[in-house]
Amino acid sequence: MAYELNGKTIETNENGYLLDHNEWNEELAQVIANEEGLGELTEKHWDIINYLRDEYINNASNQPNERTILKAMGEKWGAKIGQKDTFSLFPKMPSKQGGKVAGLPESRRKGGY
């Protein structure tokens, strides 16, 4: 599988995760989101995407689990949030589907907690 963007082919693994996270950009994120059926990315989508990318790039390739994402977004959004809030944005699991849209490698972790 691969994504086509502006005449460039961006390679992925068999599940649609980028092989090189450095090829990612915001325009590609929207292409991936459309493929995933997420529609137009909102500010809250971007908060999670940017958080996941920051953790991966600046924290030794860390890929946070669902509980860690909830805590970080609760702090960012200034509210107590639950899984429903993040799963409404990324229904196929925020850490995995969000990571895919963020252009990160496929996580091999099993659970969210």
Automatic annotation (TrEMBL):
<dbReference type="InterPro" id="IPR042072">
    <property type="entry name" value="DsrC-like_C"/>
</dbReference>
<dbReference type="InterPro" id="IPR007453">
    <property type="entry name" value="DsrC/TusE"/>
</dbReference>
<dbReference type="GO" id="GO:0005737">
    <property type="term" value="C:cytoplasm"/>
</dbReference>
<dbReference type="InterPro" id="IPR043163">
    <property type="entry name" value="DsrC-like_N"/>
</dbReference>
<dbReference type="GO" id="GO:0016740">
    <property type="term" value="F:transferase activity"/>
</dbReference>
<protein>
    <recommendedName>
        <fullName>Sulfurtransferase</fullName>
        <ecNumber>2.8.1.-</ecNumber>
    </recommendedName>
</protein>
<keyword id="KW-0808">Transferase</keyword>
<feature type="region of interest" description="Disordered">
    <location>
        <begin position="88"/>
        <end position="113"/>
    </location>
</feature>
<dbReference type="InterPro" id="IPR025526">
    <property type="entry name" value="DsrC-like_dom_sf"/>
</dbReference>
<dbReference type="Pfam" id="PF04358">
    <property type="entry name" value="DsrC"/>
</dbReference>
<dbReference type="GO" id="GO:0002143">
    <property type="term" value="P:tRNA wobble position uridine thiolation"/>
</dbReference>
<comment type="similarity">
    <text>Belongs to the dsrC/tusE family.</text>
</comment>
<keyword id="KW-0963">Cytoplasm</keyword>
<comment type="function">
    <text>Part of a sulfur-relay system.</text>
</comment>
<dbReference type="GO" id="GO:0097163">
    <property type="term" value="F:sulfur carrier activity"/>
</dbReference>
